[in-house]
Write a sequence for this structure.
């Protein structure tokens, strides 16, 4: 991939140094309210047991789904209500493709499914997203793509000449661990992780939840569990930051466990912004 | 059917033996509901655990009522239910608690938690219900507040299993079908979300060899009005905690319209 044909994406968002650019995200809108996104999987996106960081996958899903949702809701605007991710843990993936399609486009909600695979065809999982349709405000970004049964936009890339990771995803976005055993981590709101509204981007919220879940689960069972499921309810934007997590392990049998992660906006009087249920499993090496 | 008779569309709640009570005085913009239902034999699966479809039905019923009360004089329709099972062994009764997390002008998000009241209130399942806010043409339901909707415990001698209550029939190795009887309609007159959820659970267990459904993400896309309703299962893959399935529910009598989609995990035997 990373098509030599992909056209550079220009515009005020995202800024030159941004997670979506370092992910080298490419995207294309297809006919009939569909869209596809691609990211390569460099070593810095691979965890210690060989699997792609679920936060990177969630960010790809959020970008593809969000873009498509905005097209579907025109002339109105959208707010992400929830995102679910179910992964099939697979090693040795060099590139991920996410294919999104609109399942429902109504006056109040847009529902989307995203199929996740390796570009070699390996099934990596599936995701769903729900968007609340909101009246457009002047501050909402303008979407130039028009929903059509036939139109296919050119494949564009977020990557610039210097884009890419020189350190792990978690180090790049600035997630810090406050208390590993309690699953308390923090993500500062920087330009690198902002969305088009200036708040923490949805995929970065998911990434923060994954980091919190992994630490809490490891502390609970005494070994690493791979996060394979996320159920994320977005309740409010993280507008000030940092996004701070608390985690509660709800059940565990040693090989599998479920943890609830609650994310608050510490700079906004600790407002609860997100509720996440994450599932971790032991995957044989 | 209409909302003016609060007893309309409550067959599913009666089947579950579900009683629901509003907590505290009415407060615009938020709500809290508690419910309880017996962990009856007709709700149990082959391994003795409560069928996940039953838990989904309880979550949809209590979460939906909570969401609706929070937006009165508007009302709601469920759009998305996410639920994860945490414990299979349940003594009962099952306590259900729903509280609004976010109430907006267009949608409501409600957290739903189910506990085993017979085992120190240990958590059995938890999740969230998202609902879209609508203005019913005939007005919202008329309730005395604080609201209590009581159901009698089902008679174990005469109450059928969930599969028999829904009158499920297999139409292929990866398909189950039901008809939309009056018993399975909600107060809007459409297929009850709990019936859709239970069908999804049963369809997954019909299509693959597994012990029980352990989690589900349901998107209610459009109303089931005519029937028959067919649930078709696609196996997405297998991982250590079970089979990952995608289930599509369609209203065959309404031009094959998509009613719901679901992603579920079925634990291995």
């Amino acid at each position: 991939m990373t098509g030599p044909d992909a056209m550079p994406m220009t515009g005020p968002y995202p800024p030159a140094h941004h997670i979506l650019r370092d992910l080298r995200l490419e995207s294309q809108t297809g006919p009939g309210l569909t869209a596809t996104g691609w990211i390569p999987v460099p070593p810095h996106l691979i965890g210690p047991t060989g699997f792609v960081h679920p936060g990177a996958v969630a960010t790809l899903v959020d970008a593809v789904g969000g873009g498509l949702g905005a097209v579907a809701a025109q002339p109105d605007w959208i707010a992400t209500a929830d995102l679910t991710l179910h992964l099939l843990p697979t090693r040795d993936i060099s590139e991920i493709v996410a294919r999104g399609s609109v399942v429902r486009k109504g006056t109040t909600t847009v529902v989307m499914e995203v199929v996740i695979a390796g570009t070699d065809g390996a099934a990596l999982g599936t995701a769903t997203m729900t968007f609340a349709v909101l009246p457009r405000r002047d501050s909402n970004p303008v979407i130039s793509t028009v929903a059509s049964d036939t139109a296919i936009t050119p494949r564009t890339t977020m990557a610039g000449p210097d884009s890419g990771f020189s350190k792990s995803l978690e180090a790049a976005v600035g997630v810090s661990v406050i208390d590993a055993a309690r699953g308390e981590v923090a993500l500062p709101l920087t330009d690198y992780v902002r969305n088009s509204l200036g708040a923490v981007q949805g995929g970065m919220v998911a990434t923060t939840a994954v980091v919190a879940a992994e630490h809490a689960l490891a502390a609970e069972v005494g070994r690493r569990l791979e996060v394979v499921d996320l159920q994320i309810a977005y309740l409010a934007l993280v507008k000030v930051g940092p996004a701070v997590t608390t985690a509660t392990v709800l059940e565990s049998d040693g090989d599998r466990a479920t943890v609830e992660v609650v994310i608050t906006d510490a700079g906004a009087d600790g407002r609860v912004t997100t509720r996440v249920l994450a599932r971790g499993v032991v995957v044989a090496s | 059917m209409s909302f003016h008779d609060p007893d309309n569309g409550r067959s599913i709640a009666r089947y579950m033996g579900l009683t629901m009570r509003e907590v505290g005085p009415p407060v615009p913009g938020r709500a809290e509901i508690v419910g309880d239902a017996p962990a009856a034999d007709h709700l149990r699966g082959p391994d003795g655990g409560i069928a996940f479809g039953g838990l989904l039905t309880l979550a949809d019923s209590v979460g939906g009522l909570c969401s609706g009360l929070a937006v009165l004089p508007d009302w709601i329709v469920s759009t998305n239910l996410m639920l994860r099972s945490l414990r299979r062994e349940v003594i009962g009764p099952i306590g259900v608690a729903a509280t609004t997390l976010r109430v907006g002008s267009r949608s409501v998000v409600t957290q739903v938690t189910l506990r085993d009241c017979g085992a120190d209130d240990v958590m059995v399942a938890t999740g969230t219900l998202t609902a879209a806010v609508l203005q019913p043409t005939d007005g919202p339901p008329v309730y005395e507040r604080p609201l209590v909707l009581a159901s009698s415990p089902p008679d174990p001698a005469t109450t059928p299993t969930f599969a028999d209550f829904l009158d499920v029939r297999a139409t292929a190795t990866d398909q189950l079908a039901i008809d939309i009887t009056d018993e399975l309609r909600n107060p809007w007159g459409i297929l009850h979300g709990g019936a859709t959820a239970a069908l999804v659970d049963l369809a997954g267990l019909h299509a693959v060899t597994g012990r029980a459904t352990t989690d589900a993400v349901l998107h209610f896309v459009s109303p089931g009005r005519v029937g028959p309703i067919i649930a078709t299962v696609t196996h997405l893959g297998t991982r250590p905690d079970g089979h990952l399935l995608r289930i599509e529910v369609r209203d065959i009598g309404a031009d094959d319209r998509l009613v719901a989609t679901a992603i579920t995990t079925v634990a291995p035997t």
Summary: The interface with chain B takes residues 81-82, 84, 86-89, 103-104, 106, 108-109, 111, 113, 123, 125-126, 128, 130, 132-134, 228-229, 231, 233, 235-236, 250-251, 255-256, 258, 260, 272, 275, 277, 279, 281-284 of chain A (CB under 8 Å).
